[in-house]
């Protein structure tokens, strides 16, 4: 097996086989998603940091933030306004239910979600995916779409189509941001904004394993 074949096999096992296995065993993984995510992140980081071709500053620097900051702000403000109004019309009963009913839990989420969920996801699905599979997927456009696709597959574990659709749309945004900023931190910032907004708005029940 040559290097390209090995990487295709690795991609299949990590980003397709694991999510399918997670879906099949979802009832047993309720409290194990975060530990599993952190374990996979550790493996991916080890591979990245031992790769002499990986530029470590991708993880810690803001990269080309200036190239994407206007789009991030515009998309988020527009999307937050639209989704807030739409969800309020469609599901007024759960509109902002989380911060109103569980303010302390919501405040904890503001701190823990970016650290325990967003950062590991961005390291795996953006930093690792874009670097590791560049030799076999040289097209940046294809990597953006594939990263979004496998990101949505990983959310099958929640067992609902809303999580899959939202994560695919979010995956496109975050992948585009990484491709043009080359910064994990910038992706973490954008992902955190959208994720925390979804939880705050009342959509958290579609995206929550209960582990945080």
TrEMBL record:
An MF annotation (GO) of this entry = endopeptidase activity
Q: Where are the transmembrane segments?
A: 7-26, 32-51, 72-90, 105-125, 146-179
All copies of the CAAX prenyl protease 2/Lysostaphin resistance protein A-like domain together span 105-195
**UniProt-listed InterPro entries:** Rce1/LyrA-like_dom (IPR003675)
One GO term of the biological process aspect? CAAX-box protein maturation
Question: Any idea which UniProt keywords this protein has?
Answer: Membrane, Transmembrane, Transmembrane helix
Q: Which Pfam families match?
A: Rce1-like
Q: What is this protein called?
A: Intracellular septation protein
Q: Which organism is it from?
A: Pseudoalteromonas ruthenica
């Amino acid at each position: 097996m040559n290097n390209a074949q090995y990487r295709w096999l690795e991609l299949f096992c990590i980003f397709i086989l694991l999510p399918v296995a997670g879906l099949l065993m979802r009832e047993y993984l309720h409290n194990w998603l975060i530990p599993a995510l952190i374990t996979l992140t550790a493996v991916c980081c080890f591979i990245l940091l031992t790769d002499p071709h990986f530029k470590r500053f991708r993880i810690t620097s803001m990269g080309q933030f200036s190239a994407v900051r206007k789009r991030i702000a515009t998309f988020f403000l527009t999307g937050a306004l639209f989704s807030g109004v739409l969800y309020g019309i469609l599901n007024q009963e759960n509109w902002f239910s989380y911060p109103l009913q569980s303010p302390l839990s919501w405040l904890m989420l503001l701190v823990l979600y970016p650290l325990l969920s967003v950062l590991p996801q961005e390291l795996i699905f953006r930093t690792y995916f874009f670097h590791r599979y560049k030799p076999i997927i040289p097209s940046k456009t294809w990597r953006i779409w594939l990263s979004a696709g496998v990101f949505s597959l990983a959310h099958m574990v929640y067992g609902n189509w809303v999580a899959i659709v939202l994560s695919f749309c979010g995956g496109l945004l975050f992948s585009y941001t990484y491709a043009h900023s080359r910064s994990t931190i910038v992706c973490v910032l954008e992902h955190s904004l959208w994720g925390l907004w979804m939880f705050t708005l009342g959509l958290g029940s579609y995206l929550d394993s209960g582990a945080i």
